[in-house]
Each structure stands twice: as C-alpha cells, then as structure tokens.
Design a protein that fits this description.
Layout (H helix, E strand, L loop, with lengths): L15 E3 L14 H4 L3 E2 L2 E2 L5 H20 L5 H4 L1 E4 L4 E5 L3 H6 L10 H16 L2 E4 L4 E4 L4
Antiparallel strand pairs: 1-5, 2-3, 4-5, 6-7
Helix pairs in contact: 2-5
Length: 146
C-alpha cells in the first residue's frame, strides 16, 4: 500500500496488498484511534502486539484512517478492496486510488489544522513501527512514512 500517485501512462503493475479486516477506522479523532482499539500503553503506541494484529491495526489507522482524515471520503476501505481468486481473498487495490482521490482533494487547498496534526501523528507512529519482525513468519513488516 502506498500513497504515491504515479503517472497516468505507465507500465507498472499496481500494488495489491492483502486486506486485514480486524480493525476498521471509525472516523473519530485520528490520534486517539490507538487508545480506542487497545493499542496504547502508558500513553504510547504499544508495539508489543502480535505482528499480524499490528499490521491490521496499522492498515486501518495509518492507511485507511489517514486517507479518510485527509479527504472527504468515508468508508474508504470498502472502495479500495477487491475480492480476488476464488472469492476467498480480499485485497487492497491501489489502482483505484487515483480515481478516488481526484474528486476528494481539491487543487490548491491547504491542509486544515486537524489534517496536519494527523500527518504528524502518522509520522510519529510510523517511526515507532519502523521495524517490527514476526519471528514465526520469518518476515519483516516495515512501516514507513517519510
């Protein structure tokens, strides 16, 4: 999942990422989402959760939640997910992102204070989640926001 909008004419295959439906962004205060979902410990983002749970949480908050906070869109997870294969897999399909964002980000509009705050919160959370390793899967889940 990425938020980079590429040129309209390109030969790149769109990124397709599994949708992890354990959490759904609720549209309430962006920075308080970890607290509402049990991912806050001692006032900080709790990264001592199982990796798959962290990935689902991060997808809901840092991807879908941030998109909803920065745009006029709601329930964006429903608009960016697609059923593939035999109908048993749901994926996030970024190829739909250009079209969705085109009508929800007016040109030349500056970010509102709550949107700027959400970006700062996302950056801070992403730095905390920068490298989380799942020892069972022997794979890395890397979160970044630069």
């Amino acid at each position: 999942m990425d938020l980079l909008l590429g040129p309209s004419q390109h030969d790149l295959t769109p990124a397709i990422v599994p949708y992890l439906p354990s959490f759904v962004y609720d549209g309430l205060a962006y920075a308080a989402f970890p607290s509402r979902t049990g991912f806050e410990k001692d006032g900080q983002l709790d990264i001592d959760m199982p990796c798959l749970e962290l990935a689902a949480f991060a997808q809901a908050w840092l991807y879908f939640g941030l998109l909803e906070t920065l745009t006029t869109l709601s329930n964006i997870h429903k608009k960016l997910t697609t059923i593939v294969d035999d109908g048993s897999n749901i994926v996030v399909e970024t190829s739909k992102l250009d079209r969705l964002l085109a009508g929800s980000l007016p040109a030349g509009q500056f970010l509102q204070l709550d949107q700027s705050s959400a970006l700062a919160t996302a950056r801070e959370a992403s730095n905390r989640l920068r490298h989380v390793q799942d020892p069972d899967e022997r794979s890395y889940i890397v979160f970044f926001f630069d």
